[in-house]
Design brief:
Helix content is 23%, strand content 39%. The chain has 96 residues and is α+β, with helices and mostly antiparallel strands. The chain is globular.
């Protein structure tokens, strides 16, 4: 994947982000952009996502995560470099 403009980011979103349709919203937004990865709730109340694909699309979704779906109240979005999972699609995973 290196050299083709793909990046991967592990993103942690905090605030009122559970019970507000945040994960399904993330899946829809990622699939619309043809991104790869996953999203899941964390037991600490945050949402975590691995987002991979073309840099511009990944960065655009990370920016959108700062707003989230209408019922969300995001307080912080942190993104760090991550290993690209390759072309695997985008899914919702169980809480950890």
């Amino acid at each position: 994947m290196a050299g083709d403009g793909r990046i991967a980011r592990l993103v942690r979103i905090t605030g009122r982000v559970q019970g507000v349709w945040y994960r399904q919203w993330t899946v829809q937004e990622a699939r619309r952009r043809n991104l790869d990865g996953w999203v899941r709730n964390r037991s600490d109340g945050s949402v975590e996502a691995l987002i991979a694909g073309p840099e511009a699309e990944v960065e655009a979704l990370i920016r959108l995560c700062g707003d989230g779906p209408p019922a969300a109240a995001v307080s912080e979005v942190k993104a760090v470099e991550a290993e690209d999972p390759g072309p695997v699609g985008f899914e919702q995973r169980p809480t950890v």
